[in-house]
Automatic annotation (TrEMBL):
Protein name, entry field: Phosphoribosyl-ATP pyrophosphatase
Reaction catalysis annotation: 1-(5-phospho-beta-D-ribosyl)-ATP + H2O = 1-(5-phospho-beta-D-ribosyl)-5'-AMP + diphosphate + H(+)
GO annotation, cellular component aspect: cytoplasm
CDD domains the record matches: NTP-PPase_HisIE_like
Keywords: Amino-acid biosynthesis, ATP-binding, Cytoplasm, Histidine biosynthesis, Hydrolase, Nucleotide-binding
Pfam families: PRA-PH
Organism: Ornatilinea apprima
Biological or metabolic pathway of the protein: Amino-acid biosynthesis; L-histidine biosynthesis; L-histidine from 5-phospho-alpha-D-ribose 1-diphosphate: step 2/9
HAMAP family given in the database record: HisE
Family from the record: Belongs to the PRA-PH family.
Biological process, per Gene Ontology: L-histidine biosynthetic process
Length: 97
């Protein structure tokens, strides 16, 4: 799944809450809960990277990505906003001789 597609699902949950949605559970709990999850998932990324293997790392980065997108959506920030910021930082380098 593309990041933009997942973000759109999350934004749709915000606009139209659904019974049993984990995303809506997070929105209902509020920003402190979302931030706590982001912190926990970030720590799990570190632990996975330090010896749990590439598949675990992929899973934990996916968990972190999802929770970061929930945080952004809760603030009305889009992946395009992040892309624009990264684009501003981008400094193309001349090809090496
Ligand atoms: N990508 C994800 C995704 N990644 C992780 N998670 C959930 O994140 C939670 C993290 O697990 P934890 O054990 O850390 O937390 P927990 O004990 O379940 O919950 P807490 O009590 O700690 O909050 C799990 O419940 C996972 O299901 C996700 N939940 C949803 N999505 C995507 O969001 C879409 C919408 O989901 P719903 O909002 O549930 O409809 C889905 O189609 C998916 O594409």
């Amino acid at each position: 799944m593309k990041i933009d597609e997942l973000y759109q699902i999350i934004a749709d949950r915000k606009a139209a809450p659904q019974e049993g949605s984990y995303t809506n559970y997070l929105f209902d709990k509020g920003e402190d809960k979302i931030l706590k999850k982001v912190g926990e998932e970030a720590m799990e990324v570190l632990l996975a990277a330090k010896g749990e293997g590439d598949q675990r790392l992929i899973e934990e980065v996916s968990d972190l990505t999802y929770h970061l997108l929930v945080l952004l959506a809760s603030r009305g920030i889009t992946p395009a906003d992040i892309g624009a910021e990264l684009e501003k930082r981008h400094q193309p380098r001349p090809p090496q001789a």
